């Protein structure tokens, strides 16, 4: 089975860099995406805010990025241990050339 997500989004919010009990850097973020998508033969406007987390060197790198900067994120979805909903676990990022205005 596959669990792979690719999402182009802006960093809407980033918590301060934290460390796991094992000493691994971790960063909790909120990502914002807006686009127009085709569905059932019609175009619709899509807006979503996604909870995300990054670990290790990637967390350190993302902690230095500007709020509002646009990236393509790749990773997987998981349910948090002590919660409901989904969290996007970021495994790779690529900066886009445009930021939201």
From TrEMBL:
The keyword DNA-binding applies. Gene3D superfamilies: Nucleic acid-binding proteins. Keywords: DNA replication, DNA-binding, Primosome. It holds the Pfam family SSB_1. InterPro entries: NA-bd_OB-fold (IPR012340), Primosome_PriB/ssb (IPR000424), Prisomal_replication_PriB (IPR023646). HAMAP family: PriB (MF_00720). Belongs to the PriB family. Involved in the restart of stalled replication forks, which reloads the replicative helicase on sites other than the origin of replication; the PriA-PriB pathway is the major replication restart pathway. During primosome assembly it facilitates complex formation between PriA and DnaT on DNA; stabilizes PriA on DNA. Stimulates the DNA unwinding activity of PriA helicase. NCBIfam families: PriB_gamma. Homodimer. Interacts with PriA and DnaT. Component of the replication restart primosome. Primosome assembly occurs via a 'hand-off' mechanism. PriA binds to replication forks, subsequently PriB then DnaT bind; DnaT then displaces ssDNA to generate the helicase loading substrate. This is Replication restart protein PriB. It comes from Paracidovorax wautersii.
